[in-house]
Amino acid sequence: MKSETKKILLGLTVGITLCATAAPIKKNVIDEVAWIVGDEPIFRSEIEEQYAQMRSEGTQISGDPYCVIPERIAVEKLYLHQAKLDTVTAPEGQVQSSVDKRLTYFINSLGSKEKVEEYFRKPYPQLREQLLEVMRNNYIVDQVQSNLTKDVKATPNDVRKYFESLPTDSIPYIPMQVEAQIISINPVVPTQEIEDVKARLRDYADRVNKGEAEFSTLAIMYSEDGSAMQGGELGFSPRSAWVPEFANVAFNLNDPKKVSRIVETEYGYHIIQLIEKRGDQVNVRHILLSPKVSEKDLKDASVRLDSLRKEIVAGKFPFEEAARYLSQDKDTKNNKGIMVNEKNGSTRFEMQDLPPEVARRLELMQPGDISEAFVMKDAKRNKDIVAIVKLTARVNGHKASLADDFNLIKQMYEQKHKEDILKDWVEQKIKDTYVKIADGWNNCEFEYDGWIKK
To answer: How confident is the model at residue 454 (pLDDT cuts 50, 70, 90)?
Structure first.
């Protein structure tokens, strides 16, 4: 089922004007105004760029792109206008963090910053600014939609009636799913490696404090965080945006010319420089270095975890108890090691939703089996860890039923209800908004009613 939220976000995502090739030009006029929504114009160049990006990505468009794309832009403008009325804003620190991660992904995928610029045919700063605008709008639109649908709640009776009303061919097929538990540990990093990292950070701090180097230059050259390309700058953020150890130091800085002490977090070791305080938000730069884990460290951790596995298999203590007392996976150790699907809050996973290293082990296991130790990437913290997993259940593919898939059907019902609310809201907003569609752009079958006034 395609949700309204997904449609809007898809429109915003492909709206990033990062075209690598030129799109065919429909008319000879370069910057023709195709639509006006309120007092906001939609230019043909915007539509062409979005269309070019979608084509370069192989994104399928259901319908005429010269109808679908401007309508998506227009709907976005309606949401953004509502956001101004409701004073909805995006947390700049979170937006910048998302952009930094996206840019890091581009660089890792294409090989270098220069290749990113070449692929998108844009200077890196311009690319970043465009991404910031799109991510900012994504967040704001999502918040407006959430506010409009926040009161949607489904009772068991609502779910039952909804399921009974579904045509047989609309009942979804549920692919094979698994439930699993995990225990993971961090390899022991040699003390000398940690001391070397701290020595490097102390050297950087001394050079900045003595005026021998700019903090931002050192961040670009040496920081291992995605913010390195921006000189380590994180943007204005509330205390809650960062892990406590980092936030406590960042919010206590007062002199922009001085560098903080070394701060240890789950991501590694940082030094921080204050840029500006503004109310309950602060903007800082930081340099992150993480101690490197050697193959020997990983092997030693694997041996320790294999020994633990043997004791669990021998019945000396249950997996749940080992997870609680010995696992270093902060997301699951207090939950009996049970893995939770971040997409839907369920304990069930389709194989593609699991970390690839975990999926490869579970695919070959039977319920109750515990894997041998293996190395996997902790994607959140960008480091290698060692883990064992237990397959607790395997649910074969089947047509959804109330008995087995109540939570899924509940989500379907709530999503459909939210779609209806958002569709009604958009169509009412269209009625209350001045809309003009230029000749040549109005011969369309639009998703929403009311664009063309009768």
So the answer is: low
Helix and strand element counts for the chain (H, E): 14, 13
Cα–Cα distance for residue pair 411/425, rounded to 1 Å? 21
Element (H, E) at 93: helix 92-110
Percentage of the chain modeled with pLDDT above 70: 93
Number of other CB atoms surrounding residue 127 within 10 Å = 23
Q: Structure tokens of 193?
A: 């490696």
Please provide the distance, in angstroms rounded to a whole number, between the alpha carbons at the two ends of the chain: 32
Residues in the chain: 454
What mean pLDDT is predicted for residues 46-75?
89
Q: In sequence order, what are the residues at sequence separation of 6 or more whose Cβ sits closer than 8 angstroms to the Cβ of residue 154?
A: 162, 410, 413, 414, 417
Q: Which residues contact 453 (CB under 8 A, 6 or more apart)?
A: 435
Higher pLDDT, 234 or 69: 69
Q: Which residue has the higher pLDDT, 345 or 159?
A: 159
Q: Are 49 and 17 in contact (CB under 8 A)?
A: yes
Phi, psi angles (nearest 5°) of residue 341? -75, 115
From residue 132, how far is each of 120, 196, 352 by CA, in Å?
A: 16, 35, 29
Q: What pLDDT does residue 93 have?
A: 74
Helices 4-14 and 124-149 pack at an angle, to 10 degrees, of: 170
- What global pTM score does this model have? 0.66
For the cut 70, the answer to whether the pLDDT of residue 65 exceeds it is yes
Structure token pair of residue 6: 């997904």
Crossing angle for the helix pair 65-86 and 124-149, nearest 10 degrees?
Answer: 70
Q: Which of 211, 238, 260, 265 is nearest to 383 (CA)?
A: 265
| Residues contacting 95, CB < 8 A, separation 6+ | 132, 135, 136, 139, 235
